[in-house]
Amino acid sequence: LMKMVNFDNITVHTVFLCLEHPGQAAGLAYRFIKSWLKDSSHFDELKQDGLNVENFLLLVHDDDILYRYFKKIKSITRREGFEDLTDLVESVEYAFSHGHVDLLWNTVREAPKTIAERRNEFIVQMIDEFQFLNAMIYWNKRKSKNQLADNLAGGYLSTAESKIAPLLFSGSWVGWLMNLLMTMLPSRFKYKYLENMPEEEAIEMVYKYSRFFDVPVTEETAYLLAKMAEGSPFYISSIIRSECKDKDLTSMDGLTRTLEFETLDNRGVIKLTWMEYIASALPRINDRNGKNIVLY
């Protein structure tokens, strides 16, 4: 999501980054920079050495390729009149070429705030799946266990205080995300929860998914599915998209079989998701103080 919005003569930029894959700290920094360079408002009419927006982005898709094209990127930002971005890329290039990972990460993390100050604008940063930041980023390319950057999120302690470049964090592993924010970024964020859908909206969702995925339902089973799922979009979509061989959502028996498959069978998406949560919690439960914990 990269867009520019004008609101009451104030320019607001939005920068979106999704942390969904493990990687190296430097690689994360490069992707952050690339999220800036992909702003269509900067490169709508990009023509540099026969490149247009689409194939330029393909060239910088890989981190190694990005290194080789630092000069090209700087020439583009200068041509487009974005000297602040040129300065930013030069700082990243210096840190990258000298192997200063800490400096590189600090430069990129503070980039939205720095640019907002220079341009006298507001920048909203949105980072999805933020809980993975401390679990899937490493300080070295080999991704050694003892090189896990498990305190990387703490760098946002001061960054999160910016009023001109505010942060919006989201994540699907809510408990994990909340624990990270409360322990490493205390008193920095307000919390907003997405509640399950009201019954009417849940039933409407069942009908829409039924039509979209061509999975027939009846008025009775649509109501029962919405009721059993308690308005959870995940449970509704998992049952409708289930790979249960005997899936038949036009009868109560068929709906029950599909639900049993999703929650009891090892191939069920719902069960797989539950097991992922349990697997992530077990190492902490079985830690040296685990014997003091009573599970009921």
Structure explained in plain terms:
The radius of gyration is 23 Å and the shape is elongated. It has 296 residues and is α/β, with parallel strands linked by helices. The model is unreliable at 1-7 and 40-61 (pLDDT under 50). It is built from 15 helices and six strands.
C-alpha termini separation: 43 Å
Can you give the mean pLDDT? 78
The percentage of residues in β strands lies in 5-15%
The biggest sheet, with number of strands, parallel, antiparallel or mixed sense and barrel status, is:
4 strands, mixed
Helix content bin = 40-55%
Largest sheet: spatial strand order = 1-2-4-6
Task: Describe the structure concisely.
This protein has helices at about 25-35, 40-45, 55-60, 65-70, 70-80, 85-95, 100-110, 110-120, 155-160, 175-185, 200-210, 220-230, 235-240, 250-265, 270-285; strands at about 1-5, 10-20, 25, 120-130, 135-140, 165-170.
